[in-house]
Amino acid sequence: MSVRYQSDFFGDIDADLEFDAPIGAMTYYSVGGKADVLVSPRSTDALSLLLRRCYNSNIPFRVLGKGANLLVDDLGVDGVVVKLNHNCFKTSRFNREGPIDALHIMSGYDLSKAIMETARCGLDGLHVLAGIPASIGGAIRMNAGGNFGSISDTLSTVTCLSKAGELSTYRSSDLGFAYRESKIPDPVIISATFSLTPGDPIHIRKSVKDIFAWKKSMQPLADTSAGCAFKNPINNNGERISAGELIDGAGLKGLTIGGASVSQHHANFIITTAKGTARDVLSVMKDVRTRVFDSTGIKLQNEVVVWSRDPEIQR
Ligand SMILES: Cc1cc2nc3c(=O)[nH]c(=O)nc-3n(C[C@H](O)[C@H](O)[C@H](O)COP(=O)(O)OP(=O)(O)OC[C@H]3O[C@@H](n4cnc5c(N)ncnc54)[C@H](O)[C@@H]3O)c2cc1C
Q1: Which distant-in-sequence residues (6+ apart) come within 8 Å of 3 by Cβ?
Q2: Whose CA is nearest to atom 4 of ligand 1?
Q3: Residue 24 C-alpha to ligand 1 middle, in angstroms?
Q4: Active site residue 117
Q5: Contact at 8 Å (CB) between 251 and 245?
Q6: Is the distance from CB of 60 to CB of 79 less than 8 angstroms?
Q7: Do 51 and 61 touch, CB atoms closer than 8 A?
Q8: Domains of the chain by range and CATH?
Q9: Which of 17, 43, 183, 233 is surrounded by the fewest CB atoms within 10 Å?
Q10: CB 129 within 8 A of CB 180
Q11: 138 lines ligand 1 (CB under 6 A)
């Protein structure tokens, strides 16, 4: 246990603790090291107290969602990693507000479950995200989406905890949502509301199936990855272009370093084998960035979030 956590740092916080927790193995990549401590708070109050204490003591604080967009360095991460996996962070309820249904949902809720439930109830909106693995919190932070829409399209409000452990509710229009990014000022998303329009349940369920089938045909969903490694960049004409096509155009499909390679199926997916390490993935990403820049002059930006003890790697 780290010296910083002696003197009963967690003593009065209602939470499950796991020291030296293998969080890399909890991500979709299944590579990477441990967190000093993984904390699963049993209430929002406990999470609020933990947050305040970490920030007052200068202890790094991170939130782990489903780990579907995350690469944890092999040396792990310092400080506290929080996982919102207690039931209090996994509830949802509907309120009818005129012709629109408002879905209130906690951030630890599974996105695919929310998609299936709203589709079953004949509510239009979240189905555009079919096939994207995420918790509601992770999907909001990343503004998850694709060809059919983004999570911010139907998002009304987001409730967060600040560094001081205080709750604030923001209108989504104030949160700077853009392509695969948000400008949420607080470290933890606690819950959200969505405005969903009633529609035909049969039609919505068919859209879920069609979108999933499209995704499966376009992306290597059976391989181990964290989705797209890079954001689609903007070219000199101000148009967003496909990072996958740039990587493919540079002849990099199949590029392999150790146990990580550029997928043959979709060049923006970096996939790993059982022997892969986080440093293998980082090396492939670095090589891809350099070679795409050399051939096109375009700098690719990470879409995948990297956690490391080394600030140079985390950047
Ligand atoms: C096979 C595959 C396909 C994918 N396809 C797509 C796609 O089509 N479109 C797309 O957008 N993404 C896609 N992704 C990436 C990923 O699914 C999304 O980015 C998703 O939103 C990540 O959610 P998560 O809960 O796993 O977040 P994590 O990966 O756990 O975390 C991502 C970031 O969100 C933060 N975060 C998580 N929860 C909270 C919270 N409660 N409060 C504050 N911050 C939080 C984390 O700290 C981290 O910075 C794909 C991934 C895979 C593996």
Answers
A1: none
A2: 227
A3: 14
A4: no
A5: no
A6: yes
A7: yes
A8: 3-87 (3.30.43.10), 90-218 (3.30.465.10), 243-314 (3.90.78.10)
A9: 183
A10: no
A11: yes
Residue 92 confidence (pLDDT) above 90: yes
C-beta of 305 in contact with ligand 1 (< 6 A): yes
User: Which DSSP string corresponds to 149-168?
Assistant: EEGGGSEEEEEEE-TTS-EE
User: Which residue lies with its CA nearest to atom 35 of ligand 1?
Assistant: 138
Using CA atoms of 177, 247, 284, 300 in order, give the dihedral in degrees to the nearest 10.
-40
Q: Is 166 one of the annotated active-site residues of the chain?
A: no
User: Is 180 known to be catalytic?
Assistant: yes
Gap between the Cα atoms of 292 and 259, Å rounded: 21
Residue 285, token pair as written in the block: 């990403």
The sign one gets for the Cα dihedral 73, 74, 78, 82 is: positive
Length, in residues, of the chain: 315
pLDDT tens profile 243-291: 999 999 999 999 999 999 999 999 999 999 999 999 999 999 999 999 9
Q: How confident is the model at residue 236 (pLDDT cuts 50, 70, 90)?
A: confident
